[in-house]
Amino acid sequence: MAYRETAKVRDRKALTEQRILQASHELVAEAGFAALQMNQVAQRAGIATGSLYRYFANKETLAAEVFRQATEIEVDHVRRCLQQADSCALSRLEHALQTFAERALKAPKLAWALIAEPVDPAVDQQRLHYRLQYANLFACAVQQAIDDQLIPQQDPMLSSTAMVGAIAEALIGPLAQQAQDPTHAITHTITQFCVRGLAPFRYSVTGASL
Amino acid sequence: MAYRETAKVRDRKALTEQRILQASHELVAEAGFAALQMNQVAQRAGIATGSLYRYFANKETLAAEVFRQATEIEVDHVRRCLQQADSCALSRLEHALQTFAERALKAPKLAWALIAEPVDPAVDQQRLHYRLQYANLFACAVQQAIDDQLIPQQDPMLSSTAMVGAIAEALIGPLAQQAQDPTHAITHTITQFCVRGLAPFRYSVTGASL
DNA sequence: ACAAAGAGTGAATCACGGTTCACTTTTTCA
DNA sequence: TGAAAAAGTGAACCGTGATTCACTCTTTGT
What we know:
Chains A, B: It comes from Aliidiomarina soli. Chains A, B: Residues 37-56 bind DNA. Chains A, B: Keywords: DNA-binding. Chains A, B: Residues 14-74 form the HTH tetR-type domain. The structure is a homodimer of 210-residue chains. Chain A is an all-alpha fold and 210 residues long. Chain A has two domains: 1-56, Arc Repressor Mutant, subunit A, CATH 1.10.10.60; 64-201, Tetracycline Repressor, domain 2 (Orthogonal Bundle), CATH 1.10.357.10. Helix content of chain A is 72%, strand content 0%. Chain A contains nine helices and no strands. In chain A, helix 1 (7-31) crosses helix 6 (108-115), helix 5 (89-106) packs across helix 9 and helix 7 (121-147) crosses helix 8 (156-172). Residues 201-210 of chain A have low confidence and may be disordered. At the A-B interface, helix 7, helix 8 and helix 9 of A face helix 7, helix 8 and helix 9 of B.
């Protein structure tokens, strides 16, 4: 036996894998999973098509991993918003929604790919998994708000899903008109819509928010 | 010239075209536009693959027509709800949302295909067109409610889009758990979420709806 | 320096599904 | 009835894009 993987090789392989994932991420962010084509990925990563298959068993696996990483980042952002301990559950939720909305609006193709684009069973399963994480995060905040009697009793999961849907549709749906209003105004409006949906009785008759 | 299309032939052709559209509609309703494959359509319609092309120039055209017809039906349902003159704008809107939600929940695959599934440019353009009709209908009701001072000033189009998104996501998104609650309860809940999103100050402190 | 083992390559292959077209069948009318 | 015109057929064709594989290049330990 005259060969055993050494650190140098391991590092190079790790680097190549990173380049593959990076290239894939770029393609998806630019034009969705439909643009994730094996020789495009290879070309952008600077390797041969065949080499891809030394790193990922098949396209499904690669796509699922790209999806997983991308969603992880998004979920982390939202989680961080919800962990700030310096305000009430409802404000934190509002902040998280706003972040979610702003990030979606800044990278609409990516957001669409993660939220809605159908790909294949493996990715759809990943999507389900991370969707659950998302929904759980929001739902958890909703539950806290309920416990704190800031909003009335309701199914937190359903509300959470509805809020994600409202934001997604308004910002990246087919009718999302590009930047008629400035970014911040539009995300604020839609966030307010969501929060009001949860919490009718915390708002005064003049409609002023918390 | 020893041939000119006669009534008999015309009728038969019309019938065949109907069968093609019917078969296509079934396939889409069962598994989305991805299942709209030319030889599947032909088989279900009981004709040869080649014959399809005597009726539709290509798949794009067929898909667009299937989409158009299906959406027309849905839009009509909603329009009818909004035309009832016997109640206030907000009640009508609520009724329309409820109808939209119930129909989506009963045929989720079809709803998904019409609302979200990406197909091809021709269909996407149709989608944009009918989405606009949809949004306009809801937005019109929202505007009326604003004029009647039932809800505060807001961008009716944005609210309308958000409501459609909330319903779609909650009912047919990847997290749409099948029938945990009875149909009516779930559509009612989500409808209420939407209406509250519009109209904070019409609700009393107890959270009772109009 | 050499041989074993893995890593890298990219042209060839394969699967899938839309489209075509040479052919058959049906319809119409003189 | 016969010939023109159209309708119907389905196997062959084609483009696209994932996957394979026979080959070359690198790396490693003796």
